[in-house]
């Protein structure tokens, strides 16, 4: 994991864990994994899963995932024209 990802994960994890300080770190990570719908072994849980879950935790279920909103187009025609390079940003 790159340093910026470690820092991002810690910045997201710290305030969330403080709200549930009665849990130890592994219990809290297990809770996050279950909330995210992950049912595999905890050691195989990716940092991406934790980062995106922590970013979206408590957000409206219809809200776009961070990083995907920039690619969102209101209508299909505009998306096709932009993808073909006819419409420039």
Automatic annotation (TrEMBL):
It comes from the Bacteria. Gene3D superfamilies: Protein of unknown function DUF1040. Pfam families: DUF1040. InterPro entries: DUF1040, YihD_sf. This is DUF1040 family protein. The lineage of its organism: Bacteria, Pseudomonadati, Pseudomonadota, Gammaproteobacteria, Enterobacterales.
